[in-house]
Amino acid sequence: MTRLIQLIYVSRFVAGNRGMLSEMRNILTVSRANNYHNQLTGCLLFDREIFVRS
After folding, report:
1. What is 7-46 written as a DSSP string?
2. Could you give the strand order of the β-sheet that contains 9-12, starting from the edge strand earlier in sequence?
3. Contacts with 9 (C-beta within 8 Å, 6 or more apart), sequence order
4. Under DSSP, is residue 45 helix (H, G, I), strand (E, B) or coil?
5. What is the pTM of this model?
6. Which tens digit of pLDDT belongs to each residue from 1-54?
7. Which residue, of 1, 33, 41, 42, has the fewest CB within 10 Å?
8. How far apart are CA 53 and CA 8, in angstroms?
9. Which residues pair with 10 in a beta bridge?
């Protein structure tokens, strides 16, 4: 039997030195690699200030 675990995480965006678009690309690149490696799926919502990850 496969267990299903759901986690919802909310965080606030703080711009780094590279700007918003570069930060978003970095988050997506790292998340995709980690999710693939750990066999995870999820959703990332962003409204220019708040991230919601599920």
Report:
1. --EEEE----TT-HHHHHHHHHHHHHHHHHHHT----EEE
2. 9-12, 50-53, 44-46
3. 51, 52, 53, 54
4. strand
5. 0.60
6. 778 888 888 988 877 767 778 878 888 899 889 989 988 888 888 887 888 888
7. 1
8. 6
9. 52
CA 42, CA 34: separation in Å to the nearest integer? Answer: 11
Q: What is the DSSP letter of 49?
A: S
CA distance 41 to 38: 9
CA-based R_g, the chain, Å: 13
Residue 11 tokens, joined: 């965080």
Residue 1 CA to residue 27 CA, distance in Å, equals 32
For residue 34, give the amino acid letter.
Answer: N
What's the maximum distance between 2 C-alpha atoms anywhere in the chain? 46
